[in-house]
Amino acid sequence: MxxxxxxxxxxxxxxxxxxxxxxxxxxxxxxxxLKGHTVILNSEIDLEKIRxxxxxxxxxxxxxxxxxxxxxxxxxxxxxxxxxxxEKSNNSLSKHKKREIxxxxxxxxSAIQTKNxxxxxxxxxxxxxxxxxxxxxxxxxxxxxxxxxxxxMLIRDIGETGNVIFNGVILDKDKFKSKKAKIIKxxxxxxxxxxxx
Length: 197
Prior knowledge:
Shape: globular
Strand order of the largest sheet: 4-6-8-10-13-14
CATH topology of the largest domain: Pectate Lyase C-like
Radius of gyration: 18 Å
CATH architecture of the largest domain: 3 Solenoid
Largest sheet: 6 strands, mixed
Order of helices and strands: EHEHEHHHEEEEEEEEEEE
Number of strands: 14
CATH class of the largest domain: Mainly Beta
Strand content: 25-35%
Helix content: 10-25%
Number of domains: 2
Distance between the termini: 55 Å
């Protein structure tokens, strides 16, 4: 027998009455982002059509039972106050993690993985990826894939080919059409907050 340990990247869907059509709509819109992740179905409805669809699309999935691993709550990230005065008077934020700064455009095929905070001053081309467990500040247009599990993200524009996942939540591109800088964070109940700066 051989045993291998893998880190599982997954999306968990909680489905109730009337959610089947919402699932298919969400899946169609976000299939590129979901690809390569395990789909977990937590459902009170018959999943036959959804099972068939996921099998046709060759997705790995399972239906949730009493699995204590999935019940674990994520640690609530520190909610940061983003006022400039607070930042000047409190240097503890800058000591949180090292910050990496990228000035050049991120080219197609590039993959950046870091545990540090990351600032990107230029655009991100299609076919490129960023994955960080730190905070992310993105000043250029996003046309690649970003996965961020930090306390916050600062972004202004998600392009047509861009996909952004913040702490397991796929960001809706429609909320970034204004191209004004926005801060994305989670509240104490792990609900997404998007604030225009």
